[in-house]
Design a protein that fits this description.
The chain has 256 residues and is of the alpha/beta class. It contains nine helices and ten strands.
């Protein structure tokens, strides 16, 4: 099996060095992994079992054609959220079990106890405060994650691989990538996007604002700037914001 972590020794060394500096040992640890590691789906059912023993096989069957790995390699978790209409809405997260274990072993090698494994964009979404339908656009490496959150409900989610890195990404190319999720939301919920927040573009963000404002006709701003304005980035965490670690900041806010 191809490893997900390219330079395992370097990653282990870095984690162990940080743990030594923080004197962190034998503590419960959350792993915020790259978005492509965890496939996230928003699902609607007319009826859904309460028992996990019945629910998990149903989700495996429904989603097995949506992921590029075998059912017996699939780690799955889910949570219910408020439905828009009758029925049951779920957010389901799927990952290839050997890849999850790869990250967990890095933590164990540093004498940590891995617990929650979460995609970094889902963690970052905790920084959102709007009750309006908000389109979150996040670039990390060559991964582009687009999510729509309304009143703490995940209404749409898509993670794709960009054909270029963020230095070569153009505003039009970004809009073309995020538009399918926005169009899905507008068709399904019969309302427009009310705000857009962006992460991962760094100093290039101003280049993208005019086109996105014209397209969505709503405020467009940095996710971290929005979170700071709304008091979700405490002063002691500002260095993390400067390094664009919005996933970690979101997890810290959620835990607090």
């Amino acid at each position: 099996m191809e490893a997900n972590i390219v330079d395992l020794a370097a990653v282990q060394s870095a984690v162990e060095s940080v743990c030594k500096r923080l004197r962190a040992r034998e503590v419960d640890t959350a792993l915020l992994v790259p978005d492509p590691v965890i496939r996230v789906f928003v699902q609607h059912f007319e009826d859904f079992p309460r028992s996990p023993q019945e629910a998990v096989p149903l989700l495996r069957w429904k989603l097995k054609k949506s992921v590029p790995f075998e059912v017996d390699e699939m780690h799955i978790s889910y949570t219910r959220q408020a439905p828009r209409d009758d029925g049951v809405n779920l957010v389901a997260a799927l990952a290839k079990l050997p890849i999850v274990r790869e990250y967990e072993e890095v933590a164990r090698a540093a004498k940590l106890r891995p617990g929650v494994v979460l995609s970094s964009s889902i963690a970052a979404s905790a920084l959102l405060v709007d009750d309006r339908a908000t389109l979150m656009v996040r670039v990390a490496g060559n991964a582009l994650t687009t999510a729509i959150i309304r009143e703490s409900i995940l209404c749409g989610y898509r993670c794709t691989e960009l054909p270029v890195n963020r230095r070569e990404l153009t505003p039009r190319a970004l809009l073309d990538e995020i538009f399918p999720v926005a169009a899905y939301y507008q068709d399904t919920w019969s309302e427009n996007i009310r705000s857009v927040v962006i992460a991962g573009l760094g100093s290039r963000l101003p280049e993208f604002l005019p086109l996105l404002k014209d397209e969505f006709n709503c405020p467009v701003e940095s996710l971290l700037q929005s979170a700071s304005t709304n008091g979700r980035v405490p002063e002691h965490a500002l260095p993390l914001a400067e390094r664009e670690l919005e996933g970690l900041l979101g997890w810290m806010w959620y835990r607090a």
